[in-house]
């Protein structure tokens, strides 16, 4: 998606350790005008899959999921990363490793919100090694629901998570695919 | 706001300890059609205050902030509740107590995203004792910016946080104000 790639080239910072920081667009300050364009693109790509619910993980996925769900006139669920005092019903859980926070994290979804045979569109802001996605797809499978699509804003393709899910047969689309960050230069996959 | 009050009466669960759970609308499964209506109401209420940025706290405020910011064609910032490896710039911080998670939490905002003299509209899903709001207003003051308005979806008025901020002179509007939850019955403030 050209407007997203252009904004990344213009505004992203590359940090040591192959980290790309685009916190002015997606995951700290959020540009909702850009996110609206991303949401429309996800609608265009995935409308033929007929999702009935959208799933993301807190916190950075929520803005994207909100506008995508709004385009589809669907609700969305955000998997929580901590159990709180209000979560008293039965839960689906999946343990993942968060490279951003450098610790094990458990994703939680209350079972009542994810129905058997539901058609789930997973939306997230970033895909690197695929840990969040492994947890989200695991939860969908626990619910005996179906992943009809996976929409990602920015994939760090060189970290392999996206290709792993493609090889597993998932219908995955990333709007900007970063091929390398060598020497601080952002190169996209053609 | 009648449609929000009606949905709360219809779908909320009252748990022991004066806890109200409306996780099918706002903060686990999110009804983006309802949130869009809430966002339009915030736009109507606060457009005369001319905000130039919207501020919320992760994670439950993000969906509301996304659609409200989109109505205003503004970006929003979500204060993070944990520092991650990408946050390498100077930070505003404020310590609050989270009753939902029963622990101290620090709110973080990268200084570069919140400008001096900025006109900040704070948006959040819930207001009870006002801890999150105390942290968010503190961060705005640290930045020498101005809080032009505070928009809350659901205020538990009997817990006093909202009135504290009203008495301090803030321009605060809550779309549903719960007066009591005694015996599990939801009563709104007239």
Quick rundown:
Chain A is of the alpha/beta class and about 190 residues long. Chain A is about 30% helix and about 35% strand.
In the predicted model, the low-confidence regions of chain A spanning at least 5 consecutive residues are none
Q: Sum up the overall morphology of chain A in one term.
A: globular
Beta fraction of the residues of chain A?
Answer: 25-35%
Question: Count of helices of chain A?
Answer: 5
Gap between N and C termini of chain A, in Å?
Answer: 11 Å
What is the helix/strand order of chain A?
A: HEEEHEHEEEEHEHEE
Structure explained in plain terms:
The structure is a homodimer of 190-residue chains. Chain A has 190 residues and is of the alpha/beta class. The first copy, chain A, is 29% helix and 34% strand. A 6-stranded mixed sheet of chain A has the order 5-4-8-9-10-11, with helices on both faces. Chain A has a two-stranded antiparallel sheet with strand order 1-2. Chain A has a two-stranded antiparallel ribbon with strand order 6-7. In chain A, strand 8, helix 4 (131-142) and strand 9 form a beta-alpha-beta unit. In chain A, helix 2 (32-46) crosses helix 3 (61-72). Chain A binds chain B through residues 15, 19, 21, 23-24, 28-33, 35-36, 58-59, 62-63, 65-67, 69-70, 73-78, 80, 82, 84-88, 99-102, 109-110, 113, and chain B through 15, 19, 21, 23-24, 28-33, 35-36, 58-59, 62-63, 65-67, 69-70, 73-78, 80, 82, 84-88, 99-102, 109-110, 113.
């Amino acid at each position: 998606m050209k407007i997203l790639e252009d904004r990344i080239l213009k505004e992203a910072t590359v940090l040591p350790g192959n980290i790309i920081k685009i916190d002015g667009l997606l995951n700290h300050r959020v540009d909702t005008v850009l996110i609206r364009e991303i949401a429309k693109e996800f609608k265009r790509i995935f409308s033929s899959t007929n999702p009935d619910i959208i799933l993301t993980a807190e916190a950075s996925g929520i803005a994207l999921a909100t506008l995508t769900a709004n385009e589809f006139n669907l609700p969305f669920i955000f998997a929580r990363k901590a159990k709180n005092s209000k979560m008293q019903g039965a839960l689906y859980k999946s343990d993942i490793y968060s490279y951003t926070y450098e610790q094990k994290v458990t994703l939680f979804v209350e079972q009542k919100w994810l129905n058997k045979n539901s058609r789930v569109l997973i939306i997230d802001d970033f895909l690197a090694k695929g840990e969040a996605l492994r947890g989200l797809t695991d939860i969908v499978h626990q619910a005996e629901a179906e992943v009809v699509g996976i929409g990602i804003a920015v994939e760090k393709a060189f970290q392999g998570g996206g290709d792993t899910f493609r090889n597993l047969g998932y219908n995955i689309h990333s709007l900007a695919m970063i091929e390398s960050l060598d020497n601080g230069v952002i190169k996209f996959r053609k």
